[in-house]
Amino acid sequence: MAKVKELRDMGDEQIRLVWKDAAETLFRLRIQAQTEKVAAPSEMKKHRRTIARCQTILSQRGTLAPPAAVPAAKEEAPKHKKSAKKRQASGRGN
């Protein structure tokens, strides 16, 4: 596991590699936890913290890539609101 000072001394690409490696290992540990007993449950916590450290450092540097954005040209109404027709059909409309 990389310490904060070690991560800060790394370049952005190296931090991203550490992040990716920790995420893959965490994924494997989660699958293992579902199918069998994990030998060292504390490893999951260590990898979550490593991922958080990487994200924090990249965010502070301003190089954290934003999540995949939805194209702006295709705007839709919020999915959580029911349309008036659906409310009337369910007997809730006024």
Task: Walk me through this protein's architecture.
The protein is flat and about 60 Å long. The chain has a domain at 4-66: Helix Hairpins, CATH 1.10.287.310. It is mainly α and 94 residues long. The longest helix is centred in the N-terminal third of the chain and has 24 residues, at 12-35. It contains four helices and no strands. It has helices at 4-9, 12-35, 42-61, 84-90.
Q: Beta fraction of the residues?
A: under 5%
Q: Write down the overall mean pLDDT.
A: 79
CA-based shape: flat
Structural class: mainly alpha
Summed up, the helix count is: 4
Assign the CATH class of the domain at 4-66: Mainly Alpha
> How many DSSP-defined strands?
0
Helix-strand pattern, N to C? HHHH
CATH architecture of the domain at 4-66: Orthogonal Bundle
CATH topology of the domain at 4-66: Helix Hairpins
Describe the sheet with the most strands. none
Question: Terminal Cα separation, in Å?
Answer: 59 Å
Briefly summarize what is shown.
With 94 residues, this protein is mostly helical. Helices cover 61% and strands 0% of the residues.
Tags for this model:
flat, about 0% strand, mainly alpha, 4 helices, single chain, about 90 residues, Helix Hairpins
Note the topology.
Layout: H1 4-9, H2 12-35, H3 42-61, H4 84-90
Helix pairs in contact: 2-3
